[in-house]
Hints:
The structure is a homodimer of 373-residue chains. By secondary structure, chain A is of the alpha/beta class. Helix content of chain A is 35%, strand content 27%.
Amino acid sequence: MKIPSGFKASALSCGIKKRGKLDLALIFSEVPARAAGVFTNNKLPAAPVKVAKEHLKKSNTVQAIIANSGNANSFTGNGGVEDAKKEALYLSKVLGIKAEAVLVASTGIIGKRLELEKIKNAVPSLVRNLSKNGIAKAARAIMTTDTFAKISSNEFSAGGGRVVITGMTKGAGMIAPDMATMLCFIMTDANITQRALRSALKEAVDKSFNCITVDGCMSTNDTVLILANGRAANFLIDAGSKACEKFSDALSAVCLNLAKMMVKDAEGISKFIEIEVKGARNDAQAKRAALAIANSNLFKTALYGENPNWGRVVAAIGASGIDVLEGSLKIRFSSLAKKDIFVDVNLNIGKGRAVVYTSDLTPEYIKINAEYN
Amino acid sequence: MKIPSGFKASALSCGIKKRGKLDLALIFSEVPARAAGVFTNNKLPAAPVKVAKEHLKKSNTVQAIIANSGNANSFTGNGGVEDAKKEALYLSKVLGIKAEAVLVASTGIIGKRLELEKIKNAVPSLVRNLSKNGIAKAARAIMTTDTFAKISSNEFSAGGGRVVITGMTKGAGMIAPDMATMLCFIMTDANITQRALRSALKEAVDKSFNCITVDGCMSTNDTVLILANGRAANFLIDAGSKACEKFSDALSAVCLNLAKMMVKDAEGISKFIEIEVKGARNDAQAKRAALAIANSNLFKTALYGENPNWGRVVAAIGASGIDVLEGSLKIRFSSLAKKDIFVDVNLNIGKGRAVVYTSDLTPEYIKINAEYN
């Protein structure tokens, strides 16, 4: 794994999770970094989402991300917001930076206050242990029902320098609201303007995390953050440039890799399903149809049963409300006996196209989610 | 069971389904009846839906409904539409009425042409066997994965007469597109204007079938039909009258009974769940929130596990996009050990209220839908 210049991380067990499991991670840039974030649209966002948004607004640069698993600090009221602020403040003092340069993220149970003392007690050792090698460990510390850590790297040359982008994500379901919350932290040493960073992140998220679905459930904590510390030797990348296009493509590739890993680790998965819808009126209609298929319990259950029930695809497309002509619609399944399945849909009425990734719906998904407390 | 005056029915096995199972039903009014229908919003409606809509437009009165199970005659192109028209035409000749006075409905597999000869051959005997007692048999003949027949009756006095309303429905999932399609046929002897009939049906459907969900999937065949033959001795009921209000209430009660029966027979159900959302900005927002909870796989799975995971209710409400304040939201579950469960949500910001009925999501649902072909 490539690691962008000037980034370190560490992780440990502070006692939020039981049995000494890793539950606290710190990502740190040696120099102030430009930052951008994309957050859940949920109308009841968790406290760390509110605080991270506020800090991104207040501060031009960010130097640290602290994230815990085991407790989402969601639906915890003003007290929860205070907790997230105190966490950032305390870490900022130990690091010797301002509080707004710290972003916070949480994932786990909804409706339980953070055990702040446990986090405070762990911060000094978290800072002491910062290292390049800590990045892999940090990716493990943010896991909940994930069965493997998810890291992806990419690099490219532009503006006279070599730029590295490395991201980590967690989420074993898109999204299991009280546990599997999607978190993604991306580090890059690119020297890039705020404007370019923000638009590249938005585009990458649209092309990746917004193209996957496991159960159609939206979390209160979903957070994607990127820090760009400018330590690569490239010239400043601005929006609209050739270099910016390269950055955007490389970032999208990292995010898509991470997004696919999330689906491959989906709760109870037995089939990884790629759904391509083409020939739609436009790209937005293609995506709406693809997501409608991907979120149909009947379709997902049929694929679990290796049952080529394309009638369920017809019904889902019709229910999605997009423009469709019965006589033009073509549906094709690859062999259902395999683990990776492709579903090709051609509406044959326009040039719109979208690809969406999902998993099947299995008894194991129900078992995992019926038992989780 | 009360049966409205002047209605008969019959049912038999014509060979669409295997092993001699009932698969063809006829409902007949001795005199021409006013009729109204509510149909699926699916953009790929099945052939019988198209033909029933056309006949309702062309004709002021209806005298017969013919419905088959085992084949949805959906996604069958122009040929499928011709089949449905021929079916109506053939039956109309045997009954000695015009073709437009026959409505057709189908449920079952998507994408397979009807075996029209089997239906034609069965029509004479279907007509010969018409009787009051045939109504219970007809309710069985429209079943697919249903485990029991669903009939409900109601009566009231108005305008100098006693009016009876009797409905039958099928659907063991709301809605399993290629099989469980919701069909509902309602007979009444009320003497009622077209306008009043239509608005009462729309209101009843909104308060009943549009308040239940099993898997959030919309069928290509959903059809609700009502025939009012005026054989009761009441005066003509017009929209806006006190009698119309009584009719509307009685019809809504029949539909709600049938809707609850559908949920109780939901595929794989182990819990019958009533979700009440109150204190919303308005009724529409309350219903949106209630349906969002009811369609959350994570919520449904938690209840299957008897796991009072209200964090999933929080996440679903937030994801629904309605107005909500974290500090005002109250959620209460009844005992999860029982089969009937109540979930009370109070948003505490307005007077909007809605009640929605759903089932839990179980391994049995997956088994049924993974194996169905």
